[in-house]
Design a protein that fits this description.
Elements (H helix, E strand, L loop, with lengths): L2 H13 L7 H14 L3 H5 L4 E8 L2 E10 L7 E8 L18 H10 L6 H9 L8 H20 L7 E7 L7 H15 L3 E7 L12 E4 L5 E10 L14 H12 L8 E2 L2 E2 L4 E7 L11 E10 L4 H34 L10 E3 L2 H10 L13 H16 L4 E12 L6 H17 L4 E4 L1
């Protein structure tokens, strides 16, 4: 493969901004489609590259597909998978104007290396790295996929299977790109293609980095998003014990879930990161001196072997423990407040009920009530929270309720198999031929 050509491709990709939920993400598919048609094979076979529409938050973008068929007819196909949306540039500060110009950004960082941590400064000093939004995640990976297509156009006899490049928008937010791409992949499979492997060119984030050593990870971790919505009982701040603040339960759940090693899956030599809370908030729309009625939080949980049901069982166990702690805090602090203030303080006698989402929907069905989430909410997690809130509103009950559920999107885990191992070995052998100074390990 031609290193300089791949770098130039990478620079063109990064220079073309595609931040999630912006116009750049919507139009990047058109740009990528044209880049692929600059490859000789697709000039000769223009119908083998195409786009499929993807409805995004602010318009309609596209997934890009490019199928390169090998000279010896076969149905066996390797997928080269990537995404092209990136996160925002707010953290770049005054360097934001050059966030998509890796050459200029790297030059400016060298002028003031104090902006970076020690590890990043080591990379900067080495001269082997360029910095820029989307560089690692994952436009360098996309450029590598495009370079693979260019290489095999130049050396068609080396290609023994078909290659299918698939690049999607909206990986960073709702996974709408991949969900649409899956439908197209099923159609291609039904039309005769046999997918024998999928190479995802995401960056390696292993903590034990070694110089001149690259990794290919086989299989993939799964991901689910345990979420809870709590409906409390409103009260004025002047009578704090005459209601029940749902934030008390949510904060206790966060305390029990954050970094909890019991949610880390271990499978052989592999393990998943511990969970973190990705969002915790209430649903008040403005400031008032009334306590919130609804609060929620959701957590990132990755899996190697646990089923969604097993994750939810552990999650509900933590929720119930958090509810017990919240009730204990409520009563102990009420008693302490009376002792300090030397007077009786009005209070309720709160009872918290954990109601799973299937139990909630069953109660609504018995009431012959149908609830629909607000389809104007683009974030699928927020839409799920809205659906649960509307369902609790429809119950017309003043119970203090906690509803645990899985918010979308959900990704199943997939362990490695013999076929993947064979593909990985073939891939590493090929790369060694074109990059003899690099050692490879297979994890």
């Amino acid at each position: 493969m031609e290193k300089q050509r791949a770098i130039e491709q990478y620079l063109r990709l990064v220079n073309t901004q595609s931040i999630s939920e912006t116009e750049g993400e919507i139009t990047f598919g058109d740009f990528l489609y044209q880049e692929i048609h600059n490859i000789g094979y697709f000039k000769e076979h223009p119908g083998d590259a195409w786009k499929i529409p993807v409805k995004l938050g602010k318009g309609t973008g596209s997934c890009v597909f490019a199928l390169m068929k090998c000279n010896s007819p076969t149905n066996e196909t390797i997928i080269l998978l990537s995404h092209f949306d990136t996160v925002g540039i707010e953290d770049f500060g005054e360097l934001a104007p050059m966030a998509f110009d890796p050459v200029e950004l790297t030059r400016r960082l060298k002028e003031n290396p104090n902006r970076l941590n020690i590890e990043a400064n080591m990379d900067l000093d080495s001269g082997d790295y360029l910095f820029g939004r989307g560089s690692a995640d994952m436009k360098w990976g996309l450029s590598a996929g495009i370079e693979a297509l260019r290489h095999f156009h130049d050396h068609p006899d080396e290609l023994k299977t078909n290659l299918l490049l698939v690049s999607t928008p909206d990986e960073e937010v709702n996974s709408r790109g991949m969900l649409e791409a899956v439908k197209e992949l099923v159609t291609l499979q039904n039309d005769g293609l046999s997918f024998i492997a999928c190479l995802v060119s995401e960056p390696d984030i292993a903590s034990d980095r070694s110089e001149n050593q690259y990794r290919i990870h086989t299989g993939c971790a799964g991901k689910c998003l345990p979420c809870l919505v709590v409906r409390g009982k409103e009260t004025h701040v002047g009578e704090p014990f005459f209601g029940f603040n749902p934030n008390l339960v949510v904060s206790n759940v966060v305390k029990r879930m954050e970094l909890n090693p019991l949610f880390s899956d271990v499978l052989g030599k592999y393990s998943t990161p511990v969970p973190v809370c990705l969002k915790q908030t209430d649903l008040k729309s403005s400031y008032t001196v009334q306590t919130p009625l609804f609060s929620y939080a959701y957590f990132n949980v990755m899996t190697l072997s646990s089923s969604p049901l097993q994750v939810m069982d552990r999650f509900i166990h933590e929720i119930k423990g958090a509810c017990d702690e919240a009730l204990t805090q409520f009563h102990e602090r009420h008693q302490q407040a009376e002792q300090i203030q030397r007077k009786k303080i009005n209070r309720i006698s709160p009872v918290i009920r954990v109601l799973t989402y299937p139990e909630l929907t069953k109660r609504l069905q018995e009431m012959n009530v149908k609830v629909i989430a607000d389809d104007k909410i683009h974030d699928v997690r927020e839409r799920a929270v809205d659906l649960v809130k509307r369902s609790l509103d429809a119950l017309a009950s003043d119970e203090i309720l906690v509803v645990p559920f899985l918010a979308p999107p959900y990704y199943p885990h997939r362990s490695e198999n013999a076929n993947q191992t064979r593909i990985v070995q073939s891939t590493t052998n090929f790369i060694k031929q074109v990059a003899t100074q690099t050692t490879f390990t297979v994890d």
